[in-house]
Design brief:
There is one protein chain. By secondary structure, this protein is mainly α. It has one domain. The protein is built from 6 helices and 3 strands. The protein has a 3-stranded mixed beta sheet with strand order 1-3-2, with helices on one face. α1 crosses α5 and α3 crosses α5. The longest helix is centred in the last third of the chain and has 17 residues. It starts with a helix and ends in an 11-residue tail after the last helix. This is IrrE N-terminal-like domain-containing protein.
Length: 174
């Protein structure tokens, strides 16, 4: 039930977004920034591909939201990472903003691992917040046709996986 409630909340928030059709990530980011009334910069950060790092991070400063992501992965995974970080913004998970002067001139592209760890150490999310951001990313990818949504066979597949021992049953069997 919690998952269904989470899905409804996420869909409600997604319905408030301006999603261009056909979908264009850059245009969507511009629309999202305009809706928030804040500058948004999405930048690949190679250090995020190293072990021990999250694949993305949202950094909010006084004037700008930065989404830093691992660009050493597939294009679909990159979009998922970016949309996941946007999910944190949509839910206002980290309204604690850093001073603009914390950001190096030119942004973050050459951030060293030690500095990246320090920066990421300032951002902490609870498990429910991560679930919300993940659900937003997944539903957005479904909405734009990047991944298929649930089908009438989804429940049947889950039951078959449970019977074969790949996952726990989702409900009591009669």
């Amino acid at each position: 039930m919690r998952r269904a409630g989470l899905s409804r909340r996420c869909r409600r928030l997604i319905n408030e977004l301006r999603i261009p059709a056909p979908f264009d990530l850059d245009e969507f980011l511009r629309c999202f920034a305009a809706q928030r009334g804040r500058s948004l910069k999405v930048t690949p950060l190679p250090v995020l591909s190293e072990p021990g790092f999250a694949s993305g991070v949202w950094v909010a400063t006084d004037s700008t939201d930065y989404v830093l992501y691992n660009d050493r992965t597939s294009p679909l995974h990159q979009r998922h990472i970016i949309l996941h970080e946007m999910g944190h913004m949509i839910f206002a998970h980290n309204e604690r903003r850093l001073s603009d002067n914390v950001v190096p001139d030119g942004g973050f592209p050459n951030l060293e691992p030690r500095s990246a760890r320090h920066l990421m150490g300032r951002v902490h999310y609870s498990e429910p917040e991560e679930e919300e951001a993940e659900m937003v990313a997944t539903l957005l990818l479904e909405a734009i046709g990047e991944v298929p949504g649930p089908s009438r066979f989804s429940g049947l597949l889950a039951e078959a996986e449970a019977l074969l021992g790949f996952r726990k049953p989702t409900r009591a069997r009669s």
